[in-house]
Amino acid sequence: MSRSAAFDLLPGSDKNDVPAGIVQLNRSISRALRRQRGDFQYYDEPAGDPSLRQQIALRAAKRGWQAEVDELCITSGCQQSLFLALMAVCQKGDVVAVEAPGFYGVLQLLEQLGLQVVEIPASAETGLDVGAFEQTLQRWDIKACVVSPSFATPTGASMPLHARAHLIELAERHDLAIIEDDIYGESGWLVVPDTLKAVDHSNRVIHCSSLSKVLSRDLRLGWISGGRWHDDIVRLKLTSQLASSRFIQRGVADFFADGGYAAYLRRYRQQLQRQRDQLLDLLGTWSVPIRATSPAGGLALWLELPEQVDTIKLYNRALDEGVVITPGELFSMSGKFSNCLRLSFAHPWTSARAEALMRLPGLMA
Ligand SMILES: Cc1ncc(COP(=O)(O)O)c(C=O)c1O
Asked: Within this chain, do residues 208 and 285 fall inside the same structural domain, yes or no?
């Protein structure tokens, strides 16, 4: 199975249901487009629109990081941010550490760039095992570590403060870049953890994020703050993309500035919490023994099924029934997690969704 397939599409999500916040966002973008005069004849500056960067800096300050506008560069999404970060820090053949289980999009990038991968175990609750990473650093000459400290996918784990501080200390001691994937950071409904950047005293953290998971995947709007590699990263963006669309950036900046985003996010977080609970309640009725994470942010939970269950086979059987799940093996290069699944709670709960989930245990035999 290819890592590029689309997953997490249980039936029952209604693409026509547009939340009020998204309607407001679309109006902001339309207004920005109407205000556009001669812009269409010029490229935006490579780092992106200053008004949007200012708004992103204001949100970063709420999460312990006093970001300067000049430290931020707008991208076409977190995947591009991760790509630029790896391009700036690594040469072909270098070794990069990733969490396991971890985001398959990073594994694809590493493969594409000809980089070697070392997988570091990650706990389903506390994320990257920094002690195990320290031991790995004795054996491998590692250039960078890609990590999601807040609500990592697939587990929803968040790293405690002492582990974050330890990671930064290792980065200083071993001359590493830490590439922080913070795409789920703002989704937390109990707490919104500080960014790793907040404790980055030596400018070794490259912060990558986007609006894809909390607002809209279709905006294709993300950002990067490259620490000591920032100038190289902006140059790489310039050579690969030239510029980002100005009216979309300005529309989003207005949506942030007039409080639309904050109001939308408050409602969305409550909705995610409700949907997580609905999913956990349903899983509680399954007759098969399972272990499920119960994250306080992110869009998915991680399910450990009995050892004999092969979730690739389950994926194929479920597909025949019109149910799409994400098998655990996709989250590692090593063939581990074959009895695990990522289940999304990103979509509103419907009876079709509940029925699809109820059918899964019957397909495990
Ligand atoms: C952890 C993580 N990082 C990055 C991305 C890529 O996000 P974007 O749509 O902003 O490129 C995703 C998307 O699935 C993701 O789950």
From this structure: no
Residues 154-187: tens digit of each pLDDT: 999 999 999 999 999 999 999 999 999 999 999 9
Atom of ligand 1 nearest to the CA of 153: 1
On whether residue 6 sits in a domain, the answer given is no
In 193-345, which ranges are continuous DSSP H helix?
230-241, 246-257, 260-283, 311-320
Tell me which of 260, 276, 295 is where a domain ends: 260
Q: How many domains does the chain have?
A: 2
Give the atom of ligand 1 at the shortest distance from the alpha carbon of 78: 10
Q: Is 231 exposed, middle or buried (0-12, 13-18, 19+ CB in 10 A)?
A: exposed
Output the pTM of the full model: 0.95
What confidence tens digit (pLDDT) does each residue in 186-203 have? Answer: 999 999 999 999 999 999
Residues 48 and 185 grouped into a single domain:
yes
Residue 318's domain comprises: 262-363
Is ligand 1 within 6 A of the CB of residue 79?
Answer: yes
Task: Work out the pLDDT band at 39, boundaries 50, 70, 90.
Answer: confident
pLDDT single digits (tens) 205-227: 999 999 999 999 999 999 999 99
Which residue, 260, 289, 310, sits at the end of a domain? 260
Answer whether 252 contacts ligand 1 (Cβ < 6 A): no
Q: Is the CB of 148 under 6 A from ligand 1?
A: yes
8-state DSSP, 309: -
